[in-house]
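User: Predict the structure for this protein chain, please.
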Amino acid sequence: MIKDKLFGTDGIRGRIDSDHLQPQNILKLGSVIADIINNNDVKKAVVIARDTRSSGLYFENALIAGLTSKGIDCIILGVLPTGALASLTREKKAAFGIMISASHNPHQDNGLKFFDSNGFKISKELEEEIEKRFFDEALVKINLETLPGKIFIEDAIGPYLSKFNNLREELKQRKIVIDCANGAASYIISEIFHQFSNIKLIGASPDGQNINLNAGTECLENLKKEVLKNEADLGIAFDGDADRVIIIDEKGLIVDGDILMAIMAIDLKNLGTLKKDTIVATIMSSKSLDNALAPFGIKVSRADVGDRNVMKRMCELGANFGGESSGHMIFSDKSSTADGIIIAMELIDIWLRDGRSFSDICSFFVPTPRVLKDIEVNKKPSLDLMPNTNKALIDANTLLKDSGRAFLRYSGTEMKARLLVEAQTENDCQKIAEKIIWEFHQEIGFVE
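Assistant: Here is the predicted structure, written as structure tokens:
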């Protein structure tokens, strides 16, 4: 039985054997999108790209069938990062851009991210309209031999690569290791840095099954080992669709999204290009971010989790930079959505202009002791209906007062709950987290 919910925090995502991701339902989804376009009297194409998962091809074919069956042209870009898909959707003035990806999830998962004609993630209202139409309509039956829409296959790598034509000469003096997660960054990064023998790529041999496998932003151990083994100056990790970036410094230490946001925000402020002297982070970003930016006169505004929510808040405030501690970052002067490659290139430029080691650049940032726990679940009952868990959270926040916080939410993309605890010491974080997790498990049960 198909659930009456398609969208999570970031598009549609799940295991490829789940009901709503079966080929007939992807075809149906394409038909629904076509109806929305036709009902608005907008005869425009839909731009489609995918990451390196082998299942992406059947998603692509089913979408094409559903869209073209109702007269919508499809522009097929092949394997491409999400940021590039969003950019090209805007440049081509397409009705929609659809990225076939499950981001940082394993290859057994896949999904769809939707962009509007301006290259922004579609609104919550439009998601709800798509869901309603999807569950109201019967399965679509079409004659695959008489499709009125046209299919155009384009090489999109060239236009996206043009954004990175002016690489600094000093780059040749630095050793960098880049982990492409065997995902959509693999071909692009290889092209961007093909003339630099000092830059080593790992996780850049996708085979359809190895995306994010012991690689990328979700598994940084291999990158750390390569940085230390090669005595590299920097390590850079992307996720499967390259909309996230995390750094490993020359000492092998992880530099997460909060620190990277602080570095970029200060640089933009110094250049006079940080609009409203404000950045947007999410409720999951550490208080350390606020503390690090306050001396520079930079304010931090909070949004709900998800880069779409970050972008929405940026537009409301007139800000031009924001992101998430997970490595999603948006610099709206150069991209309409999170783009790990653009952000990585901005960070490289800052690093080269500064001249210091990356660890020295990060030294101003004093992390708050924190614990972030992923708790596997097989259901997601409302947290409001879990009194003991709520009491544990209230007790923790009362105890912490202004010295920290405890926050629990369900992942919008995976069957997990995420617990964030910040306190004065790591030991305090662990004790508080253990108490909350114990109460949570008593009420929700354990995953076998």
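DSSP finds 14 helices and 19 strands in the chain.
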